[in-house]
């Protein structure tokens, strides 16, 4: 299924009058609306190939219908999202779930949908049917050199697939760790992992980046070998200038101050990118902005300001890895992703409203109440009309979810693909 | 495979001399050793049928070999454990994973292994292939009366299976809840759940108990409809005198004081039983006593003291539901269970060493340092010789794990059942 | 210092034109604006007497200037707040910090500022200079009957002070608990506390309520005798129909779902009131809405809906105890309180925008994405113009903090009271 | 008050027979008992000067009697502890609470008690009466250069006092951070703090170390500028080879794996030392080993093994900063410290029992159950007789708390110093 620009424009027609009222009001209130809108138009978030199907937990999985059965159909799904919001212009593949057997064709197909290929992702947290060694006791950390080599080789193969498609970065998320005290020599696990990462790093093309993702717990329940930003940064620093830390919002201990971590990683020049989602307890992988929208705004505020300080706008080809990483257990995955992108755009727009000069002035005077007022002024502003206007200007839908529903996209996908399809992924 | 008492006695022989030294020393230090040992001998912990295979997480599952392929083989496995420790004299079935098609034969088989049938467990957190309605949005809480009825009927069927086998209790663990703000009307969800539970309760035989288990989160990530002991107790009180709260050690928010909850539930006469495991982060389902052994001791201390206060010793046919509920992702499940039972026995034995009179005296005098000394005196005592002696007297192995390994049980099971079997369960 | 209505109106003048634009836009977007504004006008939040000075932590306290030196000056401070926002029309006293020696005069003074007396608060978590027994090891839970009696008598005395002033409720927050395993017999502590509460309850006037506040930890660090809503509800149920549970937002374990607790307490008819604040880690006592504004909205959403279900609007003389309970360590306390009230009003207004019928409909259809959209539609709406309009109609300031600063209130208070005053409180 | 060796030996007499039985048994079970005992004898833990009085929380403080009124009396108190356990042979001073006006005399006094001077501690988390600038908004991070300079100068002064007394290290714990989003530019706060630390570092004598302590939260409740080990390590690396990270057990987010942090810091050569205490919720500052004794053992296990790997035994003049950092709110501070030291000794002794070769072998074979058995074998062993024997050989008490009570030390201190003394500290 393809949503042509005309279909989307037609759907917009009935919403336009109301939007114009909203937008005119917003314009009258906010300075320099056009430059904000331009930045929103430029901003793109990658969609991971594994987020297009219904996810599950260890307790159960309740699949929906019309899920993509192939890489081609996954690209088609992201194409639908991008047609609706013109902000999902990249797809992030996961190997071996999405091995492109004919990369040129895949590239052509993606280009037809206006999609680029974002970071490629390796998988050493599951065993594949044809695999010689098991990752039961870890991959890059494994005490067995042969198992480490298998995992290293897999990562190098993933890079090759990425090169074929035009990706420019590799994301390494390791489930390596331990479940019980005593199981692991933490130090040797770190050293083995470092050695393995160095071998992968050596295979990285000159213009590539490596993102080292950290996670506090799960699937290992006692220790994780890349467990927090401190460990990830240690690895990234030891690896070299192409290695960066990747922040997944759900991968922290309770109450962690993620925005501060983001700020410090930017200070060190080592923030590589994000996996966006939301959570209440752990790695819940919920829709972005559904639980802690203010935290999301605060993170974007650091990004916006950090980019200014670094003189490296993160939204203009800076190579930041932006991606949504959620697990849609009970929602239609495409609706969930549309909601996630919208929440990101809203947080980003709000962060652009922050009066940075006044904020720094308040900080300089330790005027804490004022600093809070400045942030809340931006956060409490209804920026939805700006986001909608950015979509119009980019040729997207004024209201992606409404369009998705009115145009009966899911129904059409089910009729094309069937009711009982299950996409690869978690 | 069956481990005869003779084989186990033979294995004990070589360990006896060392044990006797240990035990003689313990006997010289501890008052009334025989009564403690008698209580250890009487103490039994049920093994759930789903804990006999390798568990997994949503990220992966790394099966071991020789896992039981049928209910009969599960009983055989628990029989092996019970032969080794004479403390695992009951099995807890999970329907529909373990439907006994010929209950009489199953009862006979269990009796041959010295096993009783503990609480039966229903499953409305997964969809079965032949099921009319899905539990995607909850079972007993569902907004759809027909779905609630299906779930109620399933529970009633589970009771019937239990009756056939001689069980005396039903454990209801609900994954019902919500993943997003707005999804659920909390109150209606509670009321629907209550109504459903009442219908199940009405089908309970006169001498049965219903255990209402609570859990803070997972698989639902925003709210759980039976989320904490307060909610469970509300249900149990509204249901009636046969309804009780069941405590699973891993089902709490970070830092919860579980021993206090246990004490208060005993005060209210509503503590139904336990699911034992251990965890560092959430429902990690790790080996009992592997992370927080002191907490386990403190819980047993409340049980021991609460039983005295209630004049209802929990270990002598009181109907307490004791069960291990762990997920053995990276250990041999049978070894994990042997370690778990051992940890429980140690904590129980230590709790029996507490000088209760001196403790109450210290409390009465607000002598906090002394109260701590009294508990630590018991906890720091090496009670392993007592536990071993209890096993000898019961005809079990002095060192179950050593015996399990020396007698090559897993190797034998693999040769009988094959390397690539996967038991039902999580 | 008194802020006359004229001064405030004059200050409003310059802001009116801009406000009208905002309000006209809001009016064009939102149905039934007038009824929402009426509810905002009616809504009042009590200010606790101890929140008017700079708070501190155990590590230090950094006082500001011009803090109130007497009960009279505290009333004056709340009067200033109320003049500015017309939403702080009640003061909650804390005994013995605020013993009214001449209650009639105090009542007259409060009436001049338009203030009522909200719940009175007892203090058995500190020792007073003239006190016979120490509360080091607890008050209502104490093993010593004489100490319990002293604490009970104190509470009864607090009720008497409240009667003198026209209060209608007593809030009992107990710091009782234990710091070490073994220190407390949990059950006896509960029973002693219950007995003590019953004695206090017996002294309650016929038209009074008792609020039993719970807290997860601090100042006791191992157990709290009223530690969660389950325990508080047990007490409230055993005490009788005048006893209720009081929810303080900061008194929970990490990640607790407070809005669900609120909903269930309303279902049970046992929600007594709130202590509003915000926190990231524990009982941080930060400005309301400064950390988790969406959670605040979700709580108000339950209140708004629960009140409809109960047919008992919580904002019209229903006797709900609404109070701010924060500790202003680094902000001007009055500014902090103005920000807190504003955040509460915003959350309340947003909750009134929720399309309840559509929400219940979405729930009935398990349309989770839609339910989220409905809540977010309300939450993302900029309601500040409604709140400001409510203030205008009530004779308050359009922008309380701007007025507070422009009118140099703190400077004036310092000149009246001095730079080095320290208000009683934490 | 001084406890002579004779008094202590006399007290030992009655306990000796029982001890000998215990010790003989332990000796028969454990290899190379003498070398373990030697390491226990050598092991010393510093006592901080502020831990000798009753601590408090922001809610209240309940002082005991006979608290030290001067630095001399604090040294006397530590002398009493050291006489009793011969393991508390150092005192850690806190400036300005303990400014030594006559350092030579103080040194002489300490020497008479067998005490050395451990790390000196600066205090920029409180304002002193005579201080020009306030630390309300931070010290080393402050936006105001003059305030930073004041804090730097204070630290340099602290170093001077330390030099006078023979200390060899400075511990910098900063409460710097923020309470509200927006308050701080995280990056500038980091950079200011780094600049300030560099100035202090420049003043460090050649043979000194600087310990940079981190803390997750409190007294700041939104962000801490040295908030976790990652941040501390960043500072330490940027400062130079004399700078190290200091780990306080209570300064972590919920569920943090502290033993892994310890291992990685040792790998990096940047572990400076410890502040020992225990906690259930946050920085509860409870008696060491009173809540999570197994965690304490696991930490010591990393230390013991890490020291072997580094070939730098941490207990023989390696310059590790070992200190107890607790707050004795409801226990006699000296009893609390005796319990803490005992818990540390037990954990250390148990860690020395670990069969390291077998453990590494189990790890090499991914024998997780075996690795757990090996750790539990050590942990479940009753090592109290070894610890007691070490004390006898060092000339200390067999049972320090029994001796403290039997010899009525507190009573004597009260008679010497009075009932209503309050020691400086928290």
Automatic annotation (TrEMBL), chains A, B, C, D:
The keyword Glycosyltransferase does not apply. GO terms for molecular function: isomerase activity. Transmembrane segments: none annotated. It comes from the Bacteria. Keywords: Isomerase, Manganese, Metal-binding. This is Sugar isomerase. It comes from Lacihabitans lacunae.
